[in-house]
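Journal club side-thread
Mid-discussion, someone asked how the predicted structure for our own chain would compare to the paper's figures. Pasting it here so we can look after the session.
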Amino acid sequence: MAKISKNDMTQLKSFAAPPQGVKDVLYAALVLLGDDIDARTDYTRVIRKSLVGLEKRCEALDASKVPLNVALGAKVLMKGATSDNIKNKSMAAHLVFLWDQYVIDTVLSQYSEEEISRTVPSTEKEPEVREAINL
């Protein structure tokens, strides 16, 4: 697995307005780490602050202990992101993408397809709430 360095974090923090794919990958990483991040949050106000020490937090995370709903939430945030697409935007974001994928794959490998299909991603509202507000 690729290791995220302090220099990578410096590059990511330097973005004033990163491309959407880069934001999605960073939001997903923060969700996997347990941060309560809303994807509509202002990047400069919250995300750049959250990137401080991210490389150490990523290295320390035991992927097998990430809850299924959290891994699915991160997967939803990264929907449409591909390795090549992210690599073309930022090599540093690509390393975070690879880390996200590793964590998500590790978590999903612990569950059956049935368990996965019954689990609501952490980034979505509960089913009864979605029905009540017609989502």
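Post-session note: The radius of gyration is 15 Å.
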